[in-house]
Amino acid sequence: MSANFQDRDLVLPGDVLFEGRIRTGENTYRNQEQVYATHLGLVNYRPDNVSVTALSTGYMPLVGDQVIGVVVDMDLGEWRIDIGGQELAVMGIPDAVDRPFRTDYNMTRILDIGDTLVAKIVDLDRRRTPVLSILGPGLGKVYEGFMVRITPSKIPRLIGKKGSMINMVIKETGCRVAIGQNGRILVSGPNREREELVVKVIDKIEREAHTSGLTNRTQEFLRQLKERKQ
Amino acid sequence: MSKKPTTKKTAARKPTARTKKPKVDSWKRADGRAFDELRTLKIESGVLPNADGSAYIEMGRNKILAGVFGPREMHPKHNAKPNEAVLRCRYHMAPFSVDPRRSPAPSRRDQEISMVMRSALEPAVFLERYPRASIDVYIEVLEADGGTRCASINAAAVALVDAGIPMKDLVAACAVGKIEDKLIVDLGDYEDKKGQSDMPVAYMPKLGKVTLLQMDGDLSTEEAGKALELAIEGCKKVYEVQREALKKKYGIDQPQDKPQELPPAEPESEEEPQREES
After folding, report:
1. A5, B45, B165, B271: least surrounded by Cβ within 10 Å?
2. Residue A211 and residue B256: Cβ atoms within 8 Å?
3. CATH code for the domain in which residue B53 is found
4. Option in A14, A88, A210 nearest B168 (CB)
5. Checking DSSP bridges between strand A140-141 and strand A116-124, what pairing results, if any?
6. How many whole angstroms separate alpha carbon A223 and alpha carbon B13?
């Protein structure tokens, strides 16, 4: 029973994190009495489990996630949407239109190939294909702004505890920011300069996601940038 | 030129019986390396912004780019496996990577190395976590100088970790060969062509498992055993460089209490007072 690293050390796949009986958390695997890391990340030792906070991951779709995707294909009665997961998500007409279902909808009027949308995962079907919906507040087709991509594992840091980080950024810059759990962020604001401010902040948060006291430093960073602009 | 004085020295020392061992140790290869010395090795991860993961390796004069995409949907779909992901590798040498120019069409050798790389990397990847998906590894050899399959595996392993694909361990690769009846580690192009044998080995250092073992030429059973040991030692050295490369990209280099620096915006702040003065 022993830990081989300090808490929050950087570990690589194959590193033995723990020897002994313990539960394996995220991004780890067990081989007999040893717990190994599967991702590059920061190790977390808890009394009852060991896990790794990955610094680079793909996106694993989960029900309830808000995601940002692009329509890449259309079929009879459904759109296929790239959300950066291992397969395309689907969305049927009843999930896109809040009206009684009719068969004579012109689908391209609602969403066409190439359109970007903010959607919510409402289900994973029996092949684990995500099923999306754009019915709900803050969801739907996107008409303006631009998209930033970061590693999905760093999204919680961008949001902050109960949204503290992202609300601060929105308040300071006056931009609208939609965050997808799949690592895509949509920024739209009153002018280009403000939007670029947000992009700079997101870059900073991605680079320093593993450090503590980030919200306060980000706020100061934003104010400095703004002063410089004036 | 530099070789001659050393041979003279060893010849002068020869009469005393106990100098026999140092003589073996001081034997230098065509490029001046010791028998177990690797070529200069440099790895950089995250070099291709549009790939999910990438790496660039310089192993001696080899210059190789690796890009990883996925896990993503498999096309054509009938190649997908219902129970696990498929790892696809494409090894390609640029036309200008060797002299004389080489046809860019995939050759028999390219196909073999692609297959060999796939089977060397497969044991390290948790393919069962992504059923019906594909993970694609693209290798582009920009400059070749012998041992490109080992260098490609080294780069691909770093790129896979950079892409955030769950792995059991990294894979490090290194070749061992025989020239002038002596075993040598990490062959260069000259040694590859003139040597008596060549044995590329890929190894998972933390799990202690060999994932690739090929052999060209002749090695006795005893030599082969010794060669494998040397190769594993070489792989461990390579592994340290791979680790450093990944740590450098994701490393926690800035202490938490350090005030944030703003280098990109600084010229602006300098310009502004100047404008006011003028």
Report:
1. B271
2. yes
3. 3.30.230.70
4. A14
5. antiparallel
6. 73
